[in-house]
Design goal:
Blueprint: H1 3-32, H2 36-59, H3 66-94, H4 98-123, E1 133-136, E2 142-144, E3 160-163
Antiparallel strand pairs: 1-2, 1-3
Helix pairs in contact: 1-2, 3-4
Amino acid sequence: MDEKTLQNLKEAFAGEAQAKTKYLAFAAKAEQEGYKNAARMFRAAAEAETVHAHSHLRAMKGIGSTADNLKEAVAGETYEFESMYPGMVKRAEEAGEKEAARSFRFAMEAERVHARLYQMLLDNLDSGEELTFHLCTVCGNIELGPVDKCSICGAGPRAFKIVE
């Protein structure tokens, strides 16, 4: 593929993925403030951004077999908790940015768990066992099975939701 086109696809993919996440946050705020139509529009736009991002990823040939995708996910999550987040945590702490440091730290620890779970799935790809993933809505930790307390942020069981 032409290098400039590939670079453009990567930039567009990143922008669409960021827009989706931002619009979902905007939708939650609109919902909280009682603006149901604004919330619906933000969620609809988030879905549209997902369509765009998936299209760009397909054009980049960025979706492989499930085993290949799991390997890529392990590598990506490992990079985040080993290389990306430690420096971010350190810088935020040095700057006295406690909320940012906390956000980075929670993400770093959750990414470690994600990498472990992806590797477990890769190692047992053909097992057929049905798993239940419980997501901590405070820090992004994922646990298998019911949880009394989040091992990363300490949130109670109400902070967890089952992801289908």
